[in-house]
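[job 4417] fold queue: 2 targets
>>> target A
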Amino acid sequence: MTAYVQQNQPHGVPPLELTGERTLPDVPEENYWFRRHLAVYRWIAERCAGRRVVDMACGEGYGSAVLAQNAAEVVGVDANPEAFEHARLRYRASNLRFERALVEEFEDGAPYDALVFLQTIEHVNEPERLLERFSSLLAPGGIAYVTTPNRLTLAPPGADRSGNPWHVREYAPDEFAALVRPAFGSVELLGLFHARKLRVHELAIRAGWDSVHPALHLTKRFYGWFVPAIGERDFVLRAAPLERALDLLAVCRA
């Protein structure tokens, strides 16, 4: 099995290896998934200007750094020692800090104006309890942003989960809404979709592209160019149709 490790890290910053548990920047083969996550972080960052933000399960730290570009203060929280050390060394700003802790236990600095918890609720054994706790960490009027992959587009048709070994449970839109709503005053559900060149690629696949590129021996050459060229603008958030969304975003108000 091929091991993928981050490329071109700053001096003194240990690169992380791609395990499938979290996405990473600076791994060309992972660029689609990285940009898919980053698009949501940027959308949230635009809505966190001047706010105190906690980024739960922040992983490598790139998302916390994006949030810190607009927020008054950001703390990124992750329990993994390698991810924590990497984030602490790589992303430095006066309004950004990282803490190594379990998200179930962290509360230093609460209450927060915004709480971010992206692509992790599917890893949690007791999500209802965790969401209640997150709600308690928010200041009055605070917002929690929670995302998860949409089981309807991630898993095979009719399956109750994909083959991702890190996922405890995967959610369809109605199941995800039912999970998050009891913990918050109001919840708006949005979906992440392909846009621009990814939308064109999606339509090409429907038209039979997957049978054409192998026959013409173009697969390696085309995707060697296409995947690294994907950017955040190749994804878009909108309200519907949620059953076709790639990922689901719950905007949860305390």
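>>> target B
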Amino acid sequence: MQAFQKNSEIFNLLSEGVSEGIIVVNTQQLIVATNSSAGRMFGYSKGELVGKPLDTLIPRRYHGHHGHHVEDFIDKSERRQMGRGRDLHGVRKNGEEFPVEVGLNPFKLYDETYVMALVIDITERKVKAKELSHWARIFDESLNEIYVFDAISKYFVNVNKEAQRNMGYNLEEFKTLKPLDIKPHMDSPQFQLLIEPLLNGSRDKVKFETDHQRKDGSIYPVEVHLQLSTFGE
């Protein structure tokens, strides 16, 4: 710990402008330095964590397993993402747990080995992922047939289970098709005329009646509601 403290001013200078939490531990898994972002994230004041065991920031149920994990990491001395494929949690001073992403970086200073942990609070990311999962289930489990196709190439990019069941195509087969491939009584100019108001922003929604043709060749009447949705580009 003394060896690291000799360079504490350099560490502070380099780490204070970083938004991620930085925690440095020695081979005894004692915290030798943290930046302000880590203090705010875990609810500790400046310097309060120095000298405390790393387990202070980890939920009690993970203590035994986590210690062996860090020891193994120090022995191998390689940079890695901690807990890849698993959910990791930190614990704040008030006992509140929160999801984190942790990158581990080993280094040597004055012949002493240390590990720098880069910690990111991913609470908001987890909330958004849960919301997306919820909407994805609604899409897939809807009793209405829902089709998503690329506005430029016109190929289907997603089709829900009800549409797959009724039409007789699986998702991979649908991805080789375009809307006109399942609309036997409509040609390209007619379809382009229908979607043009969506593409130029003059309308938010287009509704029309046509026929759909299943994989087995049978035809049934449908009412189609088209809306524009953007994802990235």
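[job 4417] complete. Note on B: Residues 123-141 form the longest helix (19 residues).
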